[in-house]
Design goal:
By secondary structure, the chain is of the alpha+beta class. It is 25% helix and 19% strand. The chain has eight helices and ten strands. The chain starts with a helix and ends in a 5-residue tail after the last helix.
């Protein structure tokens, strides 16, 4: 065999040995990882169902040490050798059999036993009103939310005979223009009565009213957590208000109440009642600068509206009711 062939053979053997060693190390690494994940560790596991409210001392009588693979051990597990982190607590909910005991299963007993009355600060009362889902923001309200409370009544708008003399005269002029086929506030409609748009005039009763509970669902307290999905819910809504406010609230027919949900940065400001001038005049969409409920700039970029310079008393009045 020539020296060249010998060198090639030696090189091939070397490459093979190197590849074999690399493969062996790779396989051993996988085995080591699998072994580490499968390495048994001790945890506490419930041997029977543990009812909600069970003190830890009693609950520990229904648990035992057990080994589980390290891979499935929860990060908040309670060590069998140290149960001090949950000493003095109680089961925050029903703990099923074979459940691994973790810290989140137990809460302070004062939280668990707190009644609705305990959540009412001095000087306030809880008052409940039956409000259907539509009037309760589609049912997407949660205990702890703040709402504005409006009251509206079904009925007919006032006609021109009920208006003050000055407004009646202005409306009469508008009607006269309509009969002549000219542009006017009523868009060609001759009588103010048939033009009435706002048949259920609403006004605000209170702002920033806190919801204490909805049905039997109360606001979560410190140490509590909820895994329940948010589902639409109307029905009995319990508000937290001073006693005088509860008296006014109870004086309103429940079917006349309408709620609006507030953002965290809501700023309270006086919200005047609708006037006859506003209800018998043009709608915002018919007024330059009031086309959107968000003002001339709109809600989405590019929705801005061109505002005419022509301003008459009615237009100026209604613009005062447009969003800034």
């Amino acid at each position: 065999m020539s020296s060249r062939k010998t060198l090639i053979l030696i090189a091939a053997i070397g490459v093979g040995v190197f590849a074999g060693i690399a493969l062996l190390n790779y396989v051993r690494g996988i085995e080591r990882d699998v072994y580490d994940d499968a390495q048994p560790v001790e945890v506490l596991i419930a041997t029977a169902d543990i009812p909600k409210g069970t003190p830890v001392a009693q609950a520990l009588e229904s648990v035992q040490r057990s080994e589980v693979p390290l891979k499935i051990r929860p990060s908040t597990f309670i060590s069998p050798d140290n149960t001090d982190p949950i000493t003095g607590l109680v089961a925050g909910g029903d703990i099923p059999r074979n459940q691994i005991i973790v810290a989140g299963l137990f809460i302070d007993p004062t939280v668990l036993t707190q009644s609705l009355r305990d959540q009412i600060p001095a000087g306030n009362v809880a008052v409940s009103v039956e409000i259907d889902t539509t009037r309760a923001v589609g049912g997407y309200l949660q205990p702890g939310d703040e709402v504005n409370l409006m009251v509206n009544h079904s009925g007919e708008c006032a006609d021109t005979e009920e208006l003050d003399e000055a407004l009646a005269n202005e409306l009469a002029e508008e009607i006269a223009f309509a009969e002549q086929g000219e542009n006017n506030s009523f868009g060609g409609i001759v009588t103010a009565e048939v033009y009435c748009t706002y048949t259920q005039p609403a006004r605000y009763l209170y702002q920033r009213v806190e919801i204490l509970a909805i049905g039997a669902r109360q606001q979560l307290q410190t140490g509590e957590a909820s895994t329940a999905a948010l589902t639409p819910q109307g029905g009995t809504i319990t508000f937290l208000v001073p006693n005088e406010a509860a008296q006014l609230l109870a004086s309103v027919a429940p079917e006349d109440i309408y709620l609006t949900l507030l953002p965290d940065d809501y700023e309270l400001e006086p919200l005047p009642a609708l006037t006859q001038e506003l209800m018998l005049n043009r709608t915002p969409a018919e007024i330059s600068g009031c086309g959107t409920p968000y003002g001339p700039d709109g809600f989405i970029e590019g929705d801005s509206e061109t505002v005419d310079d022509v301003v008459d008393p009615f237009t100026d009045f209604i613009r005062g009711h447009c969003a800034p």
